Amino acid sequence: MQNSEALALSAALLAAAGELTRRIDEGVAARGFEGRPSYGFAFARLAPDGATVTDLAAHLGVTKQAASQLADELVRKGYVERRPHPRDARARLVVLTERGWACTRAAEEAAAEVVAAWAETLGGAGEVRALRDRLLRIAPYGPIKPAW
């Protein structure tokens, strides 16, 4: 693959990720939830069992202070709550509330709408599954986080 082909593929993948993020964010807002894309990246780490602010910071690639500020914002908006850590008396877990889970479900619905549109563009659900399978071979693990 020539450099120009690699650059074109890189740009296409980044554009697709950006478009997906934007459309999920719009879909979540249309379903009555206030927020921004960083909430979804945080929710991906907090589901299903919660996380400490330190865990959240590592997942998002930000400082503990920035993660703590985000957690405070999410608490104020009713998406998460802080609970005592079951194994570490010094730590607190940040966990999704019912409102946080409802917002997560709204994001899943919005993502499904985007993927359905991709299926139409690509020629069917089988093509989307093939795309997913190929992408999972390239990047099978790792946190879902923004590239700040």
Task: Explain the overall architecture.
By secondary structure, this protein is mainly alpha-helical. It has helices at residues 3-30, 37-46, 53-60, 64-76, 98-122, 125-138, and strands spanning 80-84, 92-96. It has a two-stranded antiparallel sheet. β1 and β2 (92-96) form a beta hairpin. The protein is globular.
Short recap of the structure:
The protein contains 6 helices and 2 strands. It has helices spanning 3-30, 37-46, 53-60, 64-76, 98-122, 125-138; strands spanning 80-84, 92-96.
Strand order of the largest sheet: 1-2
Beta-strand residue fraction: 5-15%
List the uncertain runs: none
Helical segment count = 6
Q: What is the helix/strand order?
A: HHHHEEHH
- Residues in helices, as a percent range: 55-70%
Distance between the termini: 28 Å
Jot down its keywords.
148 residues, two-stranded antiparallel ribbon, globular
How do the helices and strands line up, and which of them pair or pack?
Elements: H1 3-30, H2 37-46, H3 53-60, H4 64-76, E1 80-84, E2 92-96, H5 98-122, H6 125-138
